[in-house]
């Protein structure tokens, strides 16, 4: 049962959670982090930040999709949906099913899901740390470039020849 209702709900929930996680910084908050920069520099940095967030969002979604395919989430959710459907159609279903087996299977499924999501979160945090480092490096480069520009301007006006 490919692409069942449960899988669509899972993917939609994941995307909603991811969106909230990656869009917590407003443009104003972002610009406040760079008080020594000009508005044009802040705009360029914010544009770069948006590109990074969009790319990160896409990469995480792709990784989630691959993980869903790798772990056969659609098959598992399809089986669960079938079990639920059978249970609702058959009033004697509970008598036929060992609830401990179902509980163990669901528990194992949830533990695996938690492990996979934890791994994805760790990868995302590592990627975020890398992106932060890159932004800091860009900030330093912009600052150094600005300092060099000031030195050149001063030398042109003769301030070095006192």
Summarize the entry for a quick read.
This protein is an all-alpha fold and 162 residues long.
Give descriptors for this structure:
mainly alpha; 162 residues; single chain; rod-shaped
Task: Write up this protein.
By secondary structure, the chain is mainly alpha-helical. It contains six helices and no strands. Helix 1 (5-22) packs antiparallel against helix 3 and helix 3 runs antiparallel to helix 6. The longest helix has 58 residues, at 99-156. The model has no long low-confidence stretch (mean pLDDT 80).
SSE arrangement:
Blueprint lengths: L4 H18 L4 H6 L6 H32 L2 H17 L3 H4 L2 H58 L6
pLDDT averaged over residues: 80
What Rg do the Cα atoms give?
Answer: 26 Å
Distance between the termini: 82 Å
Structure annotation, total helices: 6
- The shape, in one word, is rod-shaped
Structural class: mainly alpha
Helix-strand pattern: HHHHHH
Biggest sheet descriptor:
none
User: What is the helical fraction, as a range of percent?
Assistant: over 70%
Q: What portion of residues belong to β-strands?
A: under 5%
- Regarding quaternary structure, what we see is single chain
Let me know the number of strands. Answer: 0
Low-pLDDT parts are none
